[in-house]
Amino acid sequence: MVHVKTDEAIDEMRAAGRVVAHALTAVREAARVGVSLLELDAVARAVLREARATSPFLGYRPHFAPVPFPAVVCASVNDAIVHGIPDGYRLRDGDLVSIDCGARLRGWCGDAAVSFTVGRARPADLRLIATAEAALAAGIAAAVPGNRIGDIAHAVGSVCRAAGYGIPEGFGGHGVGRSMHEDPGVPNEGPPGRGMRLRPGMVLAIEPMLIAGGGDDYVCDPDGWTLRTTDGSRAAHVEHTVAITAGGPRILTAL
């Protein structure tokens, strides 16, 4: 069931989205060579605590997961696409890092992700991240009343494929509201003009995931969470929570 939000609810979600934005900014600023992924998770926890927000990630256990998620951010490095569990790994020069974070504030959720490099960046990584961000911008631009879910999917997928990148099959965006994951699903590829029609009050997480090698295949680590590219190529993941409004898309997780 799709839950259409009131203007007041969207304003509350914007407050949660600001917490997410501040957490991601703090994590990105703290991400330096030698810093561990657990330390980055602690930075995000401090931001949530200061805002009196909780984490919809911590303890989350969907049907596929063998254990509840143990952190407040997903930290995916290099060939990890999404859902990386923060651990003692210390960042190295040239690493490509994707951080996904959520916040629940006064009963409403926000969800967003960023990708960035640490130390000396590889030009190929910068192109990958720039394309992911362009795909996200295209998806957001298509999130207007009267369009359909397929128009967002087509906008995202077209940018990714034109650049020669792969898209992990079966993973994409979703509705957001009282829960972090609500209906409808928002694929990262598909034909335009298909799927549910967009209307004001819908709130969606749009989240391109790109595989540099061009293939779509992935494998799951033994932890049951981390998805990796099968060819060892790098991946990028970016995301915003976006409200559909009569005046156009409203990004709820931007600073």
TrEMBL record:
Q: How is the cofactor bound?
A: Binds 2 divalent metal cations per subunit. Has a high-affinity and a low affinity metal-binding site. The true nature of the physiological cofactor is under debate. The enzyme is active with cobalt, zinc, manganese or divalent iron ions. Most likely, methionine aminopeptidases function as mononuclear Fe(2+)-metalloproteases under physiological conditions, and the catalytically relevant metal-binding site has been assigned to the histidine-containing high-affinity site.
Sorted alphabetically, which Pfam families does this protein's record hold?
Peptidase_M24
One Gene Ontology biological process: proteolysis
Presence of the UniProt keyword Metal-binding in the record: yes
Signal peptide as annotated in the record: none
**According to its UniProt entry, what is the function of this protein?**
Removes the N-terminal methionine from nascent proteins. The N-terminal methionine is often cleaved when the second residue in the primary sequence is small and uncharged (Met-Ala-, Cys, Gly, Pro, Ser, Thr, or Val). Requires deformylation of the N(alpha)-formylated initiator methionine before it can be hydrolyzed.
Protein's recorded name? Methionine aminopeptidase
* Organism of this sequence: Streptomyces katrae
